Structures are given as C-alpha cells and as structure tokens.
Amino acid sequence: MSDRLKSLADAGVSIWLDDLSRERIETGNLADLVRERSVTGVTTNPTIFASALAEGERYDEQVRRLVAEGADVDRAIFELTTEDVRNACDVMQQVADETEADGRVSIEVEPGLARDTEGTLAQARQLWQAVDRRNCYVKVPATQEGLPAITGAIAEGISVNVTLIFSLERYRAVMDAYLTGLEQARDAGLDVSQITSVASFFVSRVDSEVDKRLDAIGTDEAAALKGKAAIANARLAYAAFQEVFSSDRWRVLEEAGAKPQRPLWASTGVKDPAYPDTLYVTELVVAGTVNTMPEKTMAAFADHGEVEGDRVTGRAAEAQEVMDRLAAVGVDFDDVLVVLEEEGVSKFDASWAELVETVEGQLAQAREAGA
C-alpha cells in the first residue's frame, strides 16, 4: 500500500477514484486499488464510460445481446453503465460494510436533464432501482432545478452525490435540500441512517477561470493571486459545512440517526502545469471529507504527495481575505461562478454526446458483424 495515500486516509480523507471501466472490475484492478492505494469509493461520468467502451472488448458480448434485443442507444447506455456500476458496487461492498459512508459508486443522471426537476428525479429513481445496491450514489447536478430533485430523491431514500457545485450560495442551498429531504424521509417513517450523501464542490475549474481573468488584468497584484481562488473558495465552503452541520436543525436529524452530507472535493486534477500536481489534495486535507481523483493525480500523490495536517479548518478568515483581494483587483467572482455553472452544464452535455456517439458506433459494429 502506498504510505503517502495511507497517510492521507489516516488524516480522515476518503480517497475516491474518478474513473471506472469493465476492465478495472474484471481484471481485479479496482479491488487492487482498494487494497493497495486506500481507495474507498468511485465516481463516474459519461466521458469515463465513453473511454471505457472505446477500449478493449469487454463490452462486446453485452452490446451484441442488446442489438439482438433491438435496444436503441438510450437503453444501451442505461444497461451498459448500470451493469458496470452494479458490479463496482459489489467490489466496494466490503468497504461499505466496514464504514458509515464509503464504499460508494456514483452514476450520473443524464446531463440533458440538468434544468428539468421532474425528469431528473424520475431518472434518479430508475438508476437507483436498476443498480439495486445500497452503496450506489446517483449524481444530481446542483442547478437551481436540481435542488428540489435532490430533496425528492433523499426523501425517497435514494442516496445522492450532488455534483457541479461552485458557489457558497448554491452549496448552502444544496445542504438545505439534503436536510429537507431527510426531514421528509423521517416524517414518512424511513430509516434516515441508511441515507447518505456527498456534495461535490468543484476546485480546479475555479482557478482556471479566475487565473484567466487575473492574466487579463495584468498587474503585479493580480499575478500574486493566481492559484489561490479555488482553495480559498473550498475553505469557505468547509466553514459553511461546519456551520450547517452543527446547527440545532441538524442535531435533531442526527439524533434520529442521520449522517452528515460530506464535502467532496471534485475536479482535483491540476490544469495549470505551473502548479504542483498534488496542490488540490495537499491543500484541502481535512478529516471527514472526500477527495475524488483521476488516477494520474492519485499516482502523483502516491509518489510525492505530502500530508501537512489539516489545511482547511479555521482558515475561513484567510480565505475571505483572498476573495476580498480578488474583488479589489477587479475580478467579479459572482460572474465567474455563473460562467462556471453554464460551462459545467455544457461540458456535461458534450460528455453525454460523446457517450451517445461511442455507443451508437458500438451498436452499428455489432449489427454489421451479425448481418
């Protein structure tokens, strides 16, 4: 086992792999990562599935069967992806049994539903039922329309990974949606101890957008702030998490057995090569959080990452100072957040289109081979 990753896990950070493929599952690679690299969860997205489907032959038999059954592309995507997530959940089951909220595998609601509350909730139900594993998470975007879908899913006992969170205001709304869902579940007689959630707060994309604006401003003061916005934003988010999950409202739910919605640091692969490749891991170490990493970031941390203690708790004032300095040099952070959410939804749509194109190609090949 990597001592560096074990040190990260020992510091209370749950290490989740941001990748999944049938190859990983069937070769035992995922189980090896659990055993050797302290991996305790998995996140996925349509691009990850498209990449997995495009490589190797492990999906061929199922694709041929789907063609024989007359499946269209939407059904094929649903069947292929839920099969992988179900099997990954089985690999992670022991971790789920041994921990309160780890051992989870996330599957995403179709991005085209990001602005459709009822459509999101309906597909969340379908995915939850199809995977049929308690250690599954359904990923729901934190758009304005996604918020009531989060509440509805939690109220029905569906565990949710809330994704695409950039702003503190939206994060607070996400936490409120979770608590409201728990209250409704409790009032309906559900066992709230069996419902869990994470809130995926995106990190590196914030620096990408802010740094671009700082470069355009071009002053020394602006240059000195590069690479600081994302971590500051995340630290302020953690302070909001501490506030909400120490409130009287939360204590009532906690006494009923509810578990907190853990912050998950997402988009932690460094996009600017000028920054340390473990930046968004080392600087966001705090117990009770999740860091979901691409394998490249995980390998980098295993090789040379350092755990320098809790880098988040009690640093809200310092983080707010960074935000104040950004405003002073002319960065409109509210506009940054609007752009990031719009881009995030667009990227999710593009990711889905890539998956559709890949699966259509696989189905066409199978039809030709069977003709």
From TrEMBL:
Source organism per UniProt: Nocardioides perillae
Any one GO molecular-function label of the UniProt entry: transaldolase activity
Presence of the UniProt keyword Transferase in the record: yes
Pfam annotation, one family: TAL_FSA
Reactions it catalyzes: D-sedoheptulose 7-phosphate + D-glyceraldehyde 3-phosphate = D-erythrose 4-phosphate + beta-D-fructose 6-phosphate
Name by which UniProt lists this protein: Transaldolase
Pathway info: Carbohydrate degradation; pentose phosphate pathway; D-glyceraldehyde 3-phosphate and beta-D-fructose 6-phosphate from D-ribose 5-phosphate and D-xylulose 5-phosphate (non-oxidative stage): step 2/3
Compartment(s) of residence: Cytoplasm
